[in-house]
Amino acid sequence: MIIGHGKEKDIFRNILTGDKLHHAYIFSGREGSGKKMFARELARAVICAEQVFMEPCQCRHCKVAAASDHPDIHVLEESPVKIEVARRIAGDAFMSPLSARKKVYIIDNAHTFTKEAANAILKTLEEPPADTHFFLITDKYEQVLPTIRSRCINMRFSNLTNEEVEKVLLSQGVMNDMLPEIAAQASGSVSYAMFLLDNAEETGRFAPDRDKNSLFAEIHGLDTKEKIRAYCASMYAYMLVKYKESEDETLLDFSNYLLEILRRLEYNVSLDMFRMDLFIKTTEVLCEKS
Ligand SMILES: [Zn+2]
Fold first, then answer.
1. Is there a single domain that holds both residue 150 and residue 236?
2. What is the Cα–Cα distance from 101 to 236, expressed in whole angstroms?
3. pLDDT tens per residue, range 35-77
């Protein structure tokens, strides 16, 4: 079941009912908002013998699609998308579907097509055989090559609401007391919520009364963006727990500061400046006031 995306469901329900599915779409929108899952569900509806959309179906194609990979739904998750892959798709696209009436290509990371790969597939994207559909997925639409953009209809997916993120996590069996808080901070991204949750696990090192020198060494050892992200995310989760226990507003302010850091890290920034800033703020909270 696809949680959220009511607007997109309505649009494609109408398109399928009217048999008006275009041959190439780009599904763009926030990372972790469920675009690829939606594309898979849409692909299933396209090959379904009964054209059932967003509902369970027992036709032979849907059974195969539910159990494993259907031979007429091709999911490509390469990054970057290179010329060999593009050539293969362009060649395969002109063969008949193997078992259903139609076939679908779901191509993830559409913003990573190399120029050569794009050139190899442009003609196919523009005029594929009538039984072929392309769903390209990206969370960076502005980076998709203009030659590809101009041949596809862009469907901008809305972000999931906090409640929807929480529902998706629950449906995936995630159990955590912090779920509502984490979901609220994930700004519509299930994968980002998972990232915050994963890092909430190892939080022992943020116990109070840290020694300044060891804290300094620790923070300056965070030599990549990813390490800073993981560090701030787990410290964030820890501070949130401590705030719930103590209702100390300083901790709430500090967790908000950490979230702000996580947001700013999405842009190109000087890591040196970040580490220094983080060290100063962290010292104020974790080290004994002297
Ligand atoms: Zn079916």
1. no
2. 50
3. 999 999 999 999 999 989 999 999 999 999 988 889 999 999 9
